[in-house]
Amino acid sequence: MPKKRIAVITAKADDSEQKAILDGITDAAISLNCDVAVFTNIYNHWIIDEILNFENIIYDFFAPELFDGVIVTGEAYRDLSMLDSVIKKIRGSGIPAVAVGMEIEGFLSVKTDDAADMEHIVDHIVGVHGFRDIDILTGRKDDPVALLRLSGCRKALEKHGLTLDENKIHYGNFWNNTGEELAQKYLSGELPMPQAVICTNDYMAYGLCDALTAGGVEIPGRITVTGYDCTESRTYHYPFLTTYRRNRRKMGADAVGLLFAEECVLCGCGENLICGDTCSCGVDRAELSEEIHSARINKDRSVAISRALLFTDRLTLCRTLAEYTSVIREFFYLLHDAQKLYLCLDKSWNSDAYEGEDFLCCAIDQSSCELPVTFHRNVLLPALSEEHARPIIYYFIPLHFQSRLFGYTALSYNAPYNYDPSMLDWNKTVANALEFLRMKNNIHYLRQCLRDSTLYDSLTGFYNLREFRGIMAEVGAGDNSLYAVKLSFYNGNEFSRGENYRSDVISDVAGAIKQAGVNHEIFCRAKDDLFLALSKNPDRLFFDRLKAIIHHSLAGRYDETVVSVTYASVCGADSRALSSVCETAERLADEENEKIRERSGQTHYNALLKIHEGIHSSPKSVPCTTELCKRLCVSEGYFRAIYRKCFGISYNQDCIDARIMLARYLLCTTAMSVYSIAISCGYTDEKYFARQFRQYVGCSPMKYRGEAY
Question: For the chain, what is the mean pLDDT?
Answer without folding.
Answer: 84
